[in-house]
C-alpha cells in the first residue's frame, strides 16, 4: 500500500499570471472610475442647478443657484471619496476594507444628495428673499437644469470604484510595504567595508558614525 504525499502542488505560472492580470485590471478600473467620478462631481456642482424669477418693485428679475448653493454635500463627499481612493493603497487587510467601504458610501451619499437637490427650491427662495428684501418672497417659474443628474452620475462612478475596491482590493499592492511583490523580505543592505590602510575609507567611516578601528 503506497503513501499519499502531502506536499502542496505549486500553482501554475499561467494561473498566477491570470490572477495578477485580473488584479491590475480591477485596480486600473477603480482608479479611473473614482478619479473620473470625483472630477465630474466637483465640476458639475459648480454649474447652475436651478433657475427662476423673483418679484422686485412690480417687475421680475432672474434668480439662479449653483450646485454648491443648493447643497454642499456632493462636493464634500467627492473630496472624501477622492482621499479614500488613494488611501486604499496605504492600508491593508481590515483597514483597506474599511476605506473601500468609505469610498463606496461617499459615492452613494453624493448621488442621493444630488438627486434630492434636483427638486430643491430652498436656495432659490432664499435668493429671492435677499433680492426683494421680503423674507416671505418665493421664487416664481422654478426650473432645474440637467447638472444635478450629471453630478449624480459622477457620484455613481465613485460608488462603483468603492465596490471594485471591496471586491478586488485584497489583491492590490500597498505602498511602503517591506516585502517585494514575490512576498519575500527585501535583502538587507550590506554595510560597506572599511580598509584601515586607506585614509579615505577611514574618513567615510567617521562620517557614517562608525568606529573604523572596530574589528581591526
TrEMBL record:
Residues 195-216 have a biased composition (Basic and acidic residues). Residues 179-216 are annotated as: Disordered. It holds the Pfam family Trp_oprn_chp. InterPro entries: Trp_biosyn_TM_oprn/chp, Trp_synth-assoc_CHP. Keywords: Membrane, Transmembrane, Transmembrane helix. It comes from the Bacteria. The chain crosses the membrane at residues 26-50, 70-91, 98-118, 146-166. This is TIGR02234 family membrane protein.
